Amino acid sequence: MAMAFSLGTLNLPSSLICRASIPISSSKTSSLSLAFDAAFTKRAAELADKSAGFTAPHPNFGCVIATESADGERVVVGEGYLYAQGTTPAELQAVEAAGERCRGATAYLNMEPSHCFVDQSAVSALVQAGVARVVIGIRHPLHHLRGKAIGAFRSEGLVVDVLGEDLHCKTVEEALKSCHLVNAPLLYRAAYRVPFSVLKYAMTLDGKIAASSGHASWISSKMSRSRVFELRGRSDAVIVGGNTVRKDNPRLTARHGGGHLPQRIVMSKSLDLPEVANLWDVTEVPTMIATQRGAKRSFQKFLASKGVEVVEFEILNPKVVMEYLHDRGCLSVLWECGGTLAASALSSGIIHKVHAFVAPKIIGGKNAPSPVGELGMVEMTQALELIDVHYEQVGPDMLVSGFLQPVPDLTPVIPSVDETSAIDPTVSPYEASIIFFYKTWDPYGAFSNFSLHPMKMPDENGDYYMWPSVEHYYQAYKFAGIDDPTAKSCFEDIKNAKSPEEAARLGRRMQRQRPDLVRSDWESMKTSVMYQALKCKFSTYPNLTSMLLSTAGSVLVEASPHDLFWGGGRDGEGLNYLGRLLMQLRSELQRDSNANNTTLQKMENEVR
Which residues form the CMP/dCMP-type deaminase domain (predicted)? Predict the structure, then answer.
């Protein structure tokens, strides 16, 4: 989903240096100051969008720190954006760039930062730097994080203004829209409990996606196809139907020379699919088949032998697949299917946005397929209408895009967990006896291997190195001690990966492509390697130790629906080894804590 943000009618230079004599720390602002607040917050949204396409989609955060110079200039002194979960927060980047000029300055954030028991780095960075005021585009949409950072800022004496709540004007509304758009996937996911779904297709001027013969290469221009690669790179998954696989044999890769590669998903009830297909090559990108339970068991085994994941559903339809992908943690899904599956997805109500590339070509043909099949509508008044429609010329083609459902504004409708509990004390954000964790933004997301908790562990040479995450360490050690230049290079690449997601992608891809480079004892050693990393992580951070001990009496389950070794699986069929190791570590920490308490008690008794 490409986005472009401009500063509109303010005509501010690219450096965002503005002459004004209005104190930034004043909450009661004039219309000019409101315009500057809107412009800088919009700039934060523009920065946040820079991370899209380089790693698995995640909440996008940007931060701009601005202050007033001695001669009355409103000037930006620091900027930053979150590259990926597990990397340096945008706020900390901006503070490091601004240095001492943070004192008394205003920080502009497109979205309220994640602030919880185990991750308070974003708030702490701004508070400790001496920032006086924070302007926030939107509150965090996830229940357990909503309002937490705002409350923390205010408790530290900072002035906090939220667009649309504390600040109102036309330019503020435009900035607020930018903040909604840049995190639209997260907002839709929070509001509707399904991933943000985009339907994309290319058609001729007379509404055909192929000739009567089925030939479709190429309807749109090369420039339009490049835009499609960008759309894929901003998605967690790309979905097609079985007919597309049979007729087009697509690759569904992003082809942008690096960065995030979305999972490829094929929906097929019958599994009437060819044995030779580009999608069965999973050396670079994983493929998942969603099918009806019991369909062609022999072909399922064939796909499994190729490394293709097969997921069976009792009744296969777009809605249940989206609910399943929601549980897998997907934020954004791109539908590149034919007319029949597109019609089913639209009828299910799970498509939120449409991108239609219209080529200046006419192909004709009574039986030539159209982008959307039968929807059961008999009158034009029943037609689905796009809102917030955008028109853009891409080479010779016209790109028409718009939303079928407005971007959710969660401000008035979703209270925080604390607010909900105050209304109804019986409401609990999670099950008391079973605690699930998976994504880093979950209530217990700090238990994830992808959480940002650097730890000092030995590298391949035995020298101690600050590993950015448990995932970095675990993936790299698949190739530790292998006397091969490629294995050593892979070890270093994983060790220096910018994010846990990139480390995981590098490690998994090399394991698929070159299994001969994986250490021979890996299967017997991997749980031990994981446990040592977890032990180091939790012993390094006392707050993590406290959080783990607070779960005493609860079963810990890594809620990955597809990893049947480390996770619990979709229906509880997984081995849940990550949850097991954490419970084992919890028992060890409890014994140490009890032993320490006993020793202290003896010492106190001796003193008496």
Answer: 35-156
More confident residue, 570 or 585: 585
Q: List the catalytic residues.
A: 91
**What is the pLDDT confidence band of residue 56, given thresholds at 50, 70 and 90?**
low
Q: Does domain 8-182 have CATH number 3.20.20.70?
A: no
The CATH H-level superfamily of 417-594 is: YbiA-like (1.10.357.40)
DSSP state letters, 204-227: ETTS-SS-TTS--TTSS-HHHHHH
Secondary element (H or E) of residue 358 = strand 353-359
Distance CA 246, CA 250 (A): 9
Task: Answer whether 374's CB lies under 8 Å from 338's CB.
Answer: no
Q: Which residues contact 35 (CB under 8 A, 6 or more apart)?
A: 10, 169, 171
Tokens encoding 17: 């240096």
Q: Which of 463, 441, 458 is nearest to 450 (CA)?
A: 441
The string of DSSP codes covering 226-291 is HHHHHHHHT-SEEEEEHHHHHHH-------SSSS--PEEEEE-SS----SS-GGG--SSS-EEEEE
How many residues in the chain?
Answer: 608
The token pair at 502 is 């990139």
Cα separation values, 94 from 69, 76, 125, 154, 478, Å: 18, 10, 9, 20, 36
- Cα separation, 270 vs 567, in Å, equals 29
25 Rama sector, left if φ>0, alpha if ψ -120 to 50, beta otherwise: alpha
pLDDT tens per residue, range 92-115: 999 999 999 999 999 999 999 988
Q: Percentage of the chain with pLDDT > 90?
A: 54
What six digits make up the tokens of 301?
Answer: 């085994």
The dotted CATH code for 193-403 is: 3.40.430.10
Q: Where are the domains of the chain?
A: 8-182, 193-403, 417-594
* Per-residue model confidence as pLDDT tens digits over 124-158: 999 999 999 999 999 998 878 888 899 899 999 99
CB distance 130 to 103 below 8 Å: yes
User: In b/e form, how buried is each residue of 455-474, taking b as 16+ CB within 10 angstroms?
Assistant: bebebbeeeebebbbbbbbb
CA 446 to chain centre: 16
Structure tokens at 229: 């690669």
Tokens of 589: 């920490």
